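Researcher: Last one for today. Full complex below.
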Amino acid sequence: MKKFDVLSTRLKIAKKKANKNYLNNDKENTSSLGAALKLSTEMVAAVFVGSIIGFILDNWFDSKPWLTIIFFFVGATAGILNVIRSAKLMQKNND
Amino acid sequence: MSTNPMHQFIVYRIGPEISLGNVDISFTNASLFMIISALAIISVFFVGTKRKTIVPTKIQLLTELSYTFVSKMISDTAGSKAKPYFPFIFSLFMFVLFCNMLGMLPYSFTVTSHIIVTFALAAVVFIGVTIIGFANHGVGYLKLFIPSGVPVVLLPLIVIIEIISYLARPVSLSVRLFANMMAGHTMLKVFGGFVISLGIIGGWLPLSFTVALIGLEVLIAFLQAYVFAILTCIYLNDALNLNH
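Model: Here's the assembly. Have a good evening.
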């Protein structure tokens, strides 16, 4: 009888551990890799779009290169904002 | 066989040259693989839903799992209002997934490693979401560009930043998929080339790397399709619920 009890307790602990490990692995591996891939392009895209808009506006107003420079920095700001936003979203999803 | 790692991305014509006005619309290997993936999706779902048993067969399980996966993803990120857009997001996810996975087969062509394909998909999402936003909220959708609690002095700058970050969405969506697929396939080809050039003695190390990288690439192929679909859901959520 005692042996049986010990076995069932051990089984319970092992099951708990296995379950925990499985959950952890699944979540951490895929979502952190996804996050890394996601955040990096977010920044680049905004800078790229900002610079393109600046370049087009420069051609319109004949003010090369000032608007390109200004919009490069505005684009970088937008990129940082995007990164912070998606990081916040990820944090919310993880909780 | 070419040793150039970029050789695998060349688009060539299959069959006769067809042109519409000045635009070349000939049938290429890219179009072939898009059709193959579309047919593969249709046949998998046709077979999977043909005989509905209570204890599902393997292929039925696959179709049911993919349905619940996407359906749960939509309800988690975009809420119940996004239910009508399920068919679109589901087809988008399956198409990107099948294109990525078919690209993993030897001698096949990866459609999603071309930026024009991914950008076209992202542009459809972007334009569609913008139309949905304006249709649901009218001019009020422009409130997306004005975050609450911003001092009036900073408003012009903030609006410009918000517009740029809105316009950056399709670019980041398309560049992410394209860059991941192209980089992964180039890397595989480079390591594969090392196996040949190092010969039978030294070639085992890059060969084992290639095997490991293929595992990683399959993971990335799935993950990128997932990220593409989930970002579409997030953008749809912005358009439907407008809670910035």
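Chain B has one domain: 7-241. Residues 122 and 170 of chain B are 5 Å apart (CA to CA).
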